[in-house]
């Protein structure tokens, strides 16, 4: 169906939700070779051993380390950076990693928001049916485990089950119209009850809690307004509903859903958190031959901690590179979906030996981003550069050049991020 017939099918008096208009505009832009930018961030915990991660060689002729090796076939679309400086400890690192606003009292909760993913989601809101998509692999969900925060500092936990993440995308793409109408009606009724309960609490809580409560109410009202608009089906081929809840199955399924969400323009912002501030604590790696919990291995507490930690982080690298390949396999104009997506892999610690809790050599892996003007194929060391500046530079890399600061200290561009 062409654009004119599609609009006509909605009826002359029908209100077209902003994201529907944007999807139509995107379709026209795609024909001209223009595609939107996307952002994805992967978090895994406990830092990394220097000789596991640090490549050999120079800036452009680098040779892959054991952890980087699974991504070597994508090296021309990678950017490896290290040397950033941030505040230390598990809790401080967790809170600072995406917000640039580290915890000040040891509780691991950021002192404010937004996290960098939500900064983009807020600025790009209205372009897609989903504001953002947060998924997790065996995610811990204490307050100190969170990495994604709204602008008001409200933690945003991930969806741990791969079927739940898939259904969230499926609900805005290929859902049967009759089923969608029923679901939207039921959701509207639930939101009415929740809004009433939250409003009743308003006068009985402190000022800080009221700020968070007000944001809850704002989000609910936004959803209610969206539900009042006519349902407009969006068709995009998706994979079969995922099954299985093992470590590899969950991660593979999430990767498929994330790639589909970006390909279908269901959202342009997504994140994945693996475990929490101590990684996957429950010993979730037996299926890859490692019996130790991630945190135990990082503290030297497993039978073979050096190789356990190497095996865990190599597996993380394999899974990250699998997503990059999925994105790189989707053509967009003269490039691929990966070229228009900035993919970031971060830890809450920097590089260091067992029991190292510092953030004085923070390392990141970036993939894709050619269409954003990100440097490609390079390994660069930036000793002492404030990590907040890196987060700030990301805002400009992805087109938000009006930003003058991000987090507590980020206000200087990191030139090494750009081509």
Q: What would a concise description of this structure say?
A:
The protein is an alpha/beta fold. It has twelve helices and nine strands.
Protein architecture, described:
Helix 7 (177-201) packs antiparallel against helix 8 (207-228). 37% of the residues lie in helices and 11% in strands. A hairpin with a 2-residue loop joins strand 5 (331-332) and strand 6. It is α/β, with parallel strands linked by helices. It contains twelve helices and nine strands.
Question: What key phrases describe this protein's structure?
Answer:
single chain, 419 residues, alpha/beta, two-stranded antiparallel ribbon, 12 helices, 37% helix, 11% strand, globular, disordered N terminus
Helix count, DSSP H or I runs of 4 or more residues: 12
What's the alpha carbon Rg, rounded to whole Å? 21 Å
* Structural class based on helices, strands and sheet pairing: alpha/beta
Low-confidence stretches: 1-33
How many beta-strand runs?
A: 9
What is the CA-CA span between the terminal residues?
40 Å
Q: Layout of helices and strands, plus pairs?
A:
Elements lengths: L2 H7 L8 H14 L6 E6 L6 H4 L24 E7 L5 H10 L16 H8 L9 E5 L24 H9 L6 H25 L5 H22 L18 H17 L5 E6 L19 H5 L6 H24 L2 E2 L2 E2 L4 E6 L15 E7 L9 E4 L5 H11 L22
Parallel strand pairs: 1-4, 1-7, 2-9, 3-4
Antiparallel strand pairs: 2-8, 5-6, 7-8
């Amino acid at each position: 169906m062409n654009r004119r017939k599609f609009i006509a099918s909605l009826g002359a008096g029908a209100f077209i939700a902003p994201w529907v208009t944007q999807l139509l505009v995107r379709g026209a832009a795609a024909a001209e070779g223009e595609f939107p930018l996307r952002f994805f961030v992967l978090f895994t915990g406990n830092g990394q051993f220097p000789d596991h991660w640090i490549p050999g060689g120079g800036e452009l002729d680098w040779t892959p380390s054991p952890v980087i090796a699974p991504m070597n076939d994508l090296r021309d679309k990678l950017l490896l950076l290290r040397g950033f400086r941030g505040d230390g400890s598990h809790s401080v690192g967790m809170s600072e990693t995406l917000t640039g606003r580290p915890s000040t009292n040891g509780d691991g909760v950021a002192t404010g928001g937004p996290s960098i993913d939500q900064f983009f989601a807020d600025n790009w809101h209205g372009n897609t049916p989903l504001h953002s998509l947060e998924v997790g692999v065996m995610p811990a969900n204490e307050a100190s485990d969170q990495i994604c925060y709204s602008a008001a500092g409200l933690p945003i936990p991930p969806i741990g089950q791969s079927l739940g993440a898939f259904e969230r995308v499926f609900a805005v793409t290929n859902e049967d119209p009759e089923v969608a109408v029923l679901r939207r009606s039921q959701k509207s009724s639930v939101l009415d009850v929740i809004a009433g309960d939250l409003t009743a609490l308003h006068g009985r809580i402190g000022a800080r809690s009221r700020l968070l409560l007000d944001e809850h109410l704002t989000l609910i009202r936004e959803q209610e307004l969206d539900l009042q608009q006519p349902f407009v089906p969006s068709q995009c081929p998706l994979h079969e509903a995922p099954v299985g809840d093992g470590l590899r199955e969950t991660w593979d399924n999430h990767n498929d859903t994330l790639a589909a969400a970006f390909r279908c323009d269901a959202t342009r912002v997504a994140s994945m958190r693996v475990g929490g501030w101590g990684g996957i604590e429950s010993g979730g790696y037996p299926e890859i031959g490692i019996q130790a919990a991630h945190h135990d291995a990082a503290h030297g507490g497993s039978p073979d901690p050096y190789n356990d930690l190497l095996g865990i982080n190599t597996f993380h690298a394999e899974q990250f590179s699998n997503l990059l390949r999925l994105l790189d396999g989707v053509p967009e104009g003269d490039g691929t979906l990966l070229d228009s997506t900035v993919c970031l892999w971060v830890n809450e610690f920097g590089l260091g030996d067992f029991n190292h809790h510092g953030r004085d050599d923070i390392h990141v892996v970036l993939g894709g981003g050619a269409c954003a003007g990100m440097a490609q194929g390079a390994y660069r060391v930036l000793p002492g550069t404030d990590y907040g500046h890196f987060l700030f530079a990301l805002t400009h890399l992805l087109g938000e050049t009006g930003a003058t600061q991000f987090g507590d200290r980020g206000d200087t561009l990191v030139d090494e991020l750009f081509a």
